[in-house]
Amino acid sequence: MATLAAQPFDLSLDPATTALIVIDMQRDFIEPGGFGAALGNDVTPLQEIVPTVRQLLALARRHGLPVIHTRECHVPELAAIDGELVFDMPGMGAFFATGLGDHLGRLGTRTLIFAGVTTEVCVQTTMREANDRGFDSLLIEDATESYFPAFKTATLEMIRAQGAIVGWTAPLAVLEGALDG
Ligand code: TIU
User: What percent of the chain has pLDDT over 90?
Assistant: First the structure.
């Protein structure tokens, strides 16, 4: 077991039953000329988390955690490697109309670590779906981003409010400290 100083209180997780889910780190949301930009958004804040998500992927791979991606097209730095599953999601939550729940059931996963974009849309929706399915969920604060800074802040606060009503949040350094020792 690893215990990390997450908010709103410590989270204990067993790396053997923990998986990483990277939500929609796609060129469509992150690069100029894509869907996100077409909606009128400034995509630069989202580009800034790419190195952190890359570091989180390296941490998960180093510890043998199952890594799951949702996507249409990845930015090259974050591409799935052999053995990692990719789920195409028709909605905003990665559990809806995908095989994700069945896959995690087969793995025996109990804890999910989340990264990706955008914090208040697909990431939050998937965390709420995970919460209803009985998973403990941890959102890595510096590995998620929104086009709207106030929405990111509010989402982090509402996830961990009321005694982790949806889940926990922590920066990547705290997870690294807990897993790497
Ligand atoms: N992945 C995801 O969050 N899809 C969106 O459409 N997000 C927006 O913030 N628009």
Answer: 93
